[in-house]
Amino acid sequence: VSQQLKEEIRRGFAALEDPLAGLLDMLETSSDWKGKGHSLGYYISSELQLWIKEHPTVQQSGMKLKKLQARVFRILAECPANLLDPLISIYQLHTVDRNYLLGHVSHLYHKGGYKEAAILSIKLKLQPDQDVEKMCTPLLLQDKANLVEAYVGEHPELQCKLLQILDSWCAPGFNIKDISRQYQGLSKYKPDKFNHKMLSKLIFRLLEQFNLDPALCPNVINQRHLRTLNYLFYKRFVEKSMTQENWTDHVQNTVGENRWLQEHLLQLLINYSDISTAARWAQRCNMPKEILPYGVADELQKLEIQERVEETEKAENYEEVKKKKNDYYQLPIPRENIHFLQTLEEMLPCWEKVLKPGQVVGIDMEWRPSFGVVGKPRVSLLQIAVGEEVFLLDLPQLLEKTEREDEKEKLSQFIQKLYSDPGITKLGYGMSGDLNSLAATCSALKDVDKQAQGVVDLLTVDKQVDVLAPEPSYEDGAFRQPEKGLSLLVQHVLGKPLDKTEQLSNWEKRPLREEQILYAASDAYCLLEVYGKLCKDPTSFGLNSDLTASPVGKPSIKPRAKKQLNKQEVPSSSGQQCKRLVKEASCPAGPISPKEFSVVCDNMLQGLGRYLRCLGVDVRILENEDDHRKAAEIARQEGRVILTSGLPYQTLQSQVGEGRCFSVNCSEKAKEQALQVLKHFNVQVTLADIFSRCQ
């Protein structure tokens, strides 16, 4: 508002005998303030609110104030949200009898003004005296989850009550349509948005946002664990990409002592494996015979359970390890060069070797897979490869044992110095995710990503490497996923892929198994070998041979067709090329047009999908009833980038290559989301692209 208008408004107040009554006269005879946005009525009300603070003598009290308040309540029924705060402050509505306020809100509610009733309740802090289910249900039916969050935002007891109500709607056998039938004829009702899937997503978001105990919501937690079980069965029996020991560990942790999940586990074992395996698990879970499925109880009596379990697991593991040994990348260093560190004293040799100027180190991190559980992952293992050695830092133990503040500082200072020293080249693959998890593990490292220098993310280099896209294959009648991410890069550069069967291990459990230790060391050490070979011969991998000609900020890629990788080595000046590769890896790829950009939008981002399509992007959008995992299937089959948000991102990013899944801020509007996506992927839109695709 211009200074001239402000001064005119203030002169008007000073000229009135009763400015408070004068404002109501204006609002009652005008309608400009009823629309959206900042009206003249809003500016005058806001200015009066400030003016009263400077002229407290104009404040009213007693019967005169009560009469003014009665007039205000007639206006509040049509009042936009931005006018509420000034009017509540000017007319001291917090001093009105609480029962009268509750009655006014109830009147608004029963007239169908559910949103208005909720907003006014928040402003007047009436929530503790209201029925949270009654107030929030119509808002959820109108897809106003953000308003529901605000309604319970400052009231922990209401947060718990709301989550218990929402969880009760997710109970097996509960018909969610029974809720919506009570509100037939509701304006702006969005039945397609009100379903178990939406409720489940909302519950997990609120649990994380309000930092509440997930035990409040047993129904959705059980459903999520069941989905985890189904995923583990797919990995073990369809993909065959998990070892028996690793799989068993995760199944035990997922099922625990939950009888409902145990019963589902037995049914899955009967479907995917056999009755004798189901019987062994029934014995392991101490399940009563009367609840066992048909045939399992009989099998339980016949088997000598423990001997069978041990013999089967040993045989299966031996066969798997034997078969895999020659198919995958093998560590070229002896086992004694892998050091597992749990104390600061053990860390000293690591510090001396890693922090040498000019050093090149490979860094990777492991954490327990979340399987959609609420919260950010915390790093369980930090792997640092240097020279002919790999150091495995047991971060939980190191942080626990360094009880004194000065000791904790030493550990965090080592990691900060490592990342911030430009003289030490740090190699990683998809390092932004690792650094975010590192920040969540130790608060002293929350800014390490901003301080990082001398970092080479091989994910950026991988996007430039000239290779053919791999195809899915079938081995011994079993479906095998194509290699992806770092494993695919290792296969193309070094000849064999990484063995990823331990990727989904429980990295928090101690002691680590030998297979886990070798896997963790390989993930870090392979980065040194890949980087060394790319530096030695960039041209045979489709990278620009004349790296010195690349302008800073725009890495040059040879414009040639994709072909089979040429592994022949050509002698070259590797030192200069290594330096240029560091620069290229930290720069974004060149700009692309919307026609070259293909995405699949998850179903919570349908607005974003339509907006991107308007800009000429090749977009596929999931339907409301589609499972999130369908996005990964489409992405793999059609080479699309997944756009998703919230918890599904954790699940989907592990199912596609690094950098092929992007998390969008769901609270922003489609336009802001689109700008975020276009900027991240360096997509440049021209006038010719707009509406170039069928809408």
TrEMBL record:
Keywords: Exonuclease, Hydrolase, Nuclease. The keyword Nuclease applies. InterPro entries: 3'-5'_exonuclease_dom, Exonuclease_MUT-7-like, Mut-7_DEDDy_dom, Mut7-C_RNAse_dom, RNaseH-like_sf, RNaseH_sf. The keyword Nucleus does not apply. The gene is Exd3. Residues 338-539 form the 3'-5' exonuclease domain. GO terms for biological process: nucleobase-containing compound metabolic process. GO terms for molecular function: 3'-5' exonuclease activity; nucleic acid binding. It holds the Pfam family DNA_pol_A_exo1. PANTHER family: 3'-5' EXONUCLEASE DOMAIN-CONTAINING PROTEIN (PTHR47765), EXONUCLEASE MUT-7 HOMOLOG (PTHR47765:SF2). This is MUT7 Exonuclease.
